[in-house]
């Protein structure tokens, strides 16, 4: 079953604007992760937030986690054309799980 | 960090032909290894994962199989390809037995079955 569901499916913004993507999940998690995928390439891990954390920053990335609502958001500030990619949230399903379940992703287009 | 090698990058195969995709990992030992398939514009579907040599767990019944002959080698195979096997195949690796963390992905193989 699908653990993560991203929203929106597609997002188009101007360079310099902020981009916010949301993710909802179904079961309890140990951590939630965000990945980026450039077209036709492998995924790159961006950031991991643990279930006991509420917010985490990495450069221009800010991730929040609300375990009561089973949701997370990824904010990219001051977007650049190079941020154009698909973004996926993913989570392991429960204790002892090795299976990282991905959502369908948000396709972000940053227009120069 | 870990480096994942996959080859070939692209592959066009006729229906009914065999398949062998190879993945090797550098920068870690005793990793967990994964094969995913990604349909166009979609998320990733976990096909197989392995926590050790010779240990394979299958997530989706299908025309494919996986093997792990060495610690850092993971192979995806098929005896007879179907049209529905077309897709983008990704190998990934993670460490951390107690709580697996981030996964490192290879560049992927684009498979087209004609």
Which labels suit this protein?
heterodimer, A: mainly beta, five-stranded antiparallel beta sheet, 11 strands, globular, B: 114 residues, mainly beta, seven-stranded mixed beta sheet
Topology as H/E string of chain B?
A: EEEEEEEEEEE
Q: How would you classify the quaternary structure?
A: heterodimer
Helix content of chain B: under 10%
Q: Ends of chain A: how far apart?
A: 37 Å
Q: What is the overall pLDDT average of chain A?
A: 91
- Residues in β-strands, percent of chain B: over 45%
Cα gyration radius of chain A (Å):
13 Å
Helix content of chain A: under 10%
Mean pLDDT of chain B: 91
Shape by Cα distribution of chain B: globular
Catalogue the unreliable spans of chain B: none
Instruction: Report the β-strand fraction of chain A as a percent range.
Output: over 45%
Overall number of strands of chain B: 11
Describe this entry's structure for a reader.
- The complex is a heterodimer of chains A (112) and B (114).
- With 112 residues, chain A is mostly beta strands.
- In chain A, 0% of the residues lie in helices and 57% in strands.
- In chain A, strands 2, 4, 5, 9, 10 and 11 form a 6-stranded mixed sheet that branches. A 5-stranded antiparallel sheet of chain A has the order 1-3-8-7-6, with no helix packed on it.
- In chain B, 0% of the residues lie in helices and 56% in strands.
- Chain B is mainly β and 114 residues long.
- In chain B, the strands form 2 sheets. In chain B, strands 2, 4, 5, 6, 9, 10 and 11 form a 7-stranded mixed sheet that branches. Chain B has a 4-stranded antiparallel sheet with strand order 1-3-8-7, with no helix packed on it.
- Chain B is globular, with a radius of gyration of 13 Å.
- Chain B is built from no helices and 11 strands.
- At the A-B interface, β4, β5 and β10 of A face β5, β9 and β10 of B.
